[in-house]
Give the backbone structure.
Amino acid sequence: MNGLVFEKRDFTPDHLHTLKTLHLNNYPILYILYNEKKRPSAYIGQTVQASRRLKTHLEDKKRNNLNRSILIGHEKFNQSATYNIESNLINYFIADNHYQLQNVSQTRSRVMHNYYQKSFYNEELFQVIWEKLREENIVSDTVENLRNKDIYKLSPYKELSPQQLEIKNEILDFCKEHIRKDGNHVIAIEGDAGTGKSVLLSSLFNTIQDLAKDDGSLKNKDNYLLVNHTEMLKTYKSIANSLPNLKKKNLMKPTPFINEKTKTGETADIVLVDEAHLLLTKEDSYNNFRYQNQLDEIIKRSKITIVIFDPKQVLKIKSYWNDQLLEEITKQYSAKTVKLTDQMRMNANPETIKWIDKFIAKEVLPLPSEEDSSFELELFEDAETFKHAIENKNNEIGLSRIVSTFDYLHKKDGKTYIVDEEGINMPWNITQDSVTWAENPGSIKEVGSIYTVQGFDLNYVGVVLGPSISYDEGKKELIIDSSKYKDTGAFISRTDLSPEKNQEIKEEIILNSINVLMKRGIHGLYIYATDPKLRQKLLELKRGK
């Protein structure tokens, strides 16, 4: 591209004095400092004073193992552009997962903003820079592939929305104020599926761990991020490979954390809990949890607990949560709640979101009258057309998958189980230890369950509504038949709840699972109902009857 200056050189005082190129010396630039060791390291930055900034790095003991540099300039660079591209480079380097970055959290004001010709710098010019880095064997994967990785989407360096940044700063202030106080302190972050809860938590934990290396009030604190979700834990641990102050030993499931702190008698300082709606609310000896409520036990073993929570994502009776139960737990402590409300995942207009929300409330509305140019909501008459549509989207932009309500038999015995043999006829709920389900290319030929995709993004999601979801033409609403739901582990009744309440929660769990599945797609939602009555109703809506 005309105007791009790309120079590789040794990172030494001698080479620093040769910075004569106009667009490297008198303009904002980007730079990458790195080494080529067996476990390579890198630092990514931007500056408007190249010689002075690089001289400072040469004198920094933290950079003394970096001996190579790449300087990137352009005649059209301005500081907003280099700032933006720097963020992109950090995020894509994390996703490429080759270097351990020496970057620590940037200023607290890093927030999404627009500037003149942002799309040119953010997309066109960045693509050229990345391809140049690939040519030089600095990075390996393509922008397109990396953009679809969960490790990219949950990167702690993603630009935050104004609302996310406001809440992040509020929580950091809460931590600095309460870390010195006696007792246990709790702050809960509530938000619907797709409101950016996990991105916020990832950014927050990285900053807290960076501050643990500083001289401030959070220095040398013993902090943890907990998540009761195997697939999500894999992603957090992959991110830890690339960042200096994230350690895998501080990323855990709740029960091992509780048992470890019980054994040592120690109290953690700050504990962040992602997907807290997955925490157990009764004893579960199968999972080695001997208490009554995981959240309560985590709070008791932590000075400050930061909880991400969405009651509409509860999927098991033994993990049953609602706002009242959360309040009963947290009111025993110094607690406050903040709310994320902006939809960050789905590129859907309010009418489309409303249609989905009403469906989850058992109300089947006419399809949105206003066409949504940035999000596709499609209903399908037959399984083959539905499958081909998702395959086509996967071929076009990648990361498009079929998922299903848990209406089909599945056992953890290594055997293959099938979704809807008469229609979809695909294997399902297959997971691997090393990679999240949707990122396995072969999973386009499979169906995912709620447990393989909760918390993750897809570009397009194809949702199979199984036999437990039908339609009552007389009542004009969905019928939920929990007897047809095959996730028997989710329905183990609780003796501390009435039979009526246990039954009520079963319906709630199925509706919650539909909510989670339908809100996975960034660009589109495709729906296929196996129940004839529901399929007929949806087809009537599609035809505008």
Summary: Residues 499-518 form the longest helix (20 residues). The chain has 18 helices and 20 strands. The mean pLDDT is 91.
